Amino acid sequence: MKEKKDIIVIGGGIIGVSVAYYLAKEGRSVTLLEKDEVGMGSSYGNAGWIANGFSLPMAAPGVPLQGLKWLLDATSPFYIKPRLNFDFISWLWRFLGACNEKQFRKSYSILLSLGQGSFDLFDELFAQEDVDFGYQHKGRLTLFTSEESFDKSMPDVAFVREFGVDVSLLDADGAREIEPNISASVKHAIYSSVYAHANPSHFVNEMARLAKEQGVEMMTGTSVTGFEIAGNQISSVQTTAGKFSANQVVLAAGVWSEIVARELSLKLPIQPAKGYSLTYKCPPEFLPKIPISLAERKVAVTPMGDLLRLTSTFELVGFDLDINQRRLAAIRNSASAYLSGMDRLEQESAWAGYRPATPDDLPIIGRSGKYDNLVLATGHGTLGITYGLITGKLVSQIITGEEPAIDLTPLQAERF
């Protein structure tokens, strides 16, 4: 016998719990299905940056040539494992097609709108709820040890300023006024004010707690195994805990959305982009005050309470969570070139996880063109924490019939 549900949300990362929270706030009955525990995927070990403004789409002019150079370096931040797989080759072809000026500008404008929407919702969340996940809105420093790399960043600075984004160019002394712990090797810095940071694991858990308080049913350890279809409707969701019918289904399973979608004969161009992080205990005197980007090394440095997290790499290697020790070593060794006291860190943990990457670096948000009662909310790449709240809000607007706050046409799955 099928158990009847109103709305089923598939996925318990930041996107899924945010969708569940906003739908429940609208008075809807929501059941969330998660195959593991809430927040244990890419929402767990990432950099925790809420990034806007000076966060550019990866699909950009010049990236294919730079990517070829990185492929020759086993410790580079970007790596593609060559393999004969049709879906992967198709994804790469679409990615190359998106690396042009017109698409780059279009994507950046959309991401700016999503980012501003999320920042507004963070303000609203703190005004309405009692939450604590280490959120701080202090901006971000990008540090340069090379004059050449700093000069090469100037076109990006000019580009974001064209869109009204506030960034400041600093010499080494100016950077030390913000972050005194910068090493003598740093020559220049860029300060981006439109950045915040949080502990991502705490963020997901807090949103899950709020969702539960709103009445959301959380079914962890529950995998989706298939679907039953009636015409252009999903009539039931089959799971390891039984079969459920639902009025609406939201697919928000991150990188696993592509696999779940196959059961619906849908092809979502999402590839697992593996990233690594190292989290350390950090003496207070050496803990940075704000997030820092190590420009030449492509490493993100984030203070989280008494912890320091280093995050990097974008590996397109398929579903392979083997830890590449050379890459971890490259991340580990990078911080000491920019910050003092990094030799005194005590390693807390190493982590690797998948980010759901689309070819144009834009998420997939919107109602499915094939099934009337399916909404897609996935493909957020490295910025799931940034766009979690706004995605949750947009999905709730779609399902409740409210006009979405942002035009979702460019984010439909059918754009591919």
Total helical elements: 11
CATH homologous superfamily classification: FAD/NAD(P)-binding domain
DSSP helix fraction: 25-40%
CATH architecture verdict: 3-Layer(bba) Sandwich
The computed structural class is alpha/beta
Proportion of strand residues: 25-35%
What is the count of distinct domains? 1
Q: What is the average per-residue confidence, as pLDDT, rounded to a whole number?
A: 93
Give the H and E element order: EHEEHEHHEHHEHEEHEEEEHEEEEHEEEH
How many strands? Answer: 19
Distance between the termini: 38 Å
Structure report:
- The chain has 416 residues and is an alpha/beta fold.
- It has a single domain (3-415), classed as FAD/NAD(P)-binding domain (3-Layer(bba) Sandwich), CATH 3.50.50.60.
- 31% of the residues lie in helices and 28% in strands.
- It contains 11 helices and 19 strands.
- The strands form 3 sheets. Strands 4, 5, 6, 7, 13, 14, 15, 16 and 17 form a 9-stranded mixed β-sheet that branches. Strands 1, 2, 9, 10, 11, 12, 18 and 19 form an 8-stranded mixed β-sheet that branches.
- Helix 1 (14-25) links the parallel strand 1 (3-10) and strand 2 (30-34).
- Helix 1 (14-25) runs parallel beside helix 8, helix 1 runs parallel beside helix 11 and helix 4 (101-128) packs across helix 11 (384-400).
